[in-house]
Please model this.
Amino acid sequence: MPGKEAPGNFIDNLYHFLFTSFSGGYETVDQLSVYYGELQKILEVLLAASLKSDEKGKLQSDFFLNHLPVIYEALLEDAAAVLEFDPAAQSLEEVLLAYPGFYAIAVHRMAHQLHQQGVAVLPRIFAEHAHSKTGIDIHPGAEIGYSFFIDHGTGVVIGETTIIGNRVKIYQGVTLGALQVSKALASVKRHPTIEDDVVIYSGATILGGNTTIGSNSIIGGNVWLTYSVPQHSVVYHQSEIKVRDINPFPEPLNFVI
Model:
């Protein structure tokens, strides 16, 4: 493998080719076509190195690029969902340029396509590149439906066998993880299923391959779930908060250990 830098540069350039050119735009269709050809050659080299075969690298590259329009359309739906549900988003351009959640989803959809093609290592490098830039960790194996929205996103973890439905919203610090990390369970479903139209608020942890969150459910902040909940559920964590005046305060506020 050619290290991490070349794959990271490629996935960034592919993202900017699709959405946000570094130069602010392309002057002609010919200019765009030339840039696309350069990306195609780079992907062939990366895949050839990963698969140890120039022929397989070209076949896998062609297959991926043939699916790129489908990925692009799915990402436009993701961007539209961000614009619809986040009151802070002022325009589609803002989402494409400035939202780390959308960037992480974009990289995931491209990495997931290569993962489905049976390409090893390279999709993980793409995913880790997005992880390092956004703090959002999505395994390329995770299956994610359309109109997916990650708000803020820092600390989100989505495991390999997670299945997420359509129009799901996730906030920062959410973990969709496994109950067990035994190597013997590598080939079984270890991560939860999130059905359509679910909202998962910050800090929630949902674990287990048999755990299903029913459609139209709301999972509150800091909830810890290891079992399924039916459709239209509201799950919340209740904590006790105490407020008192600091004066008089029996313990010293400044102390040294």
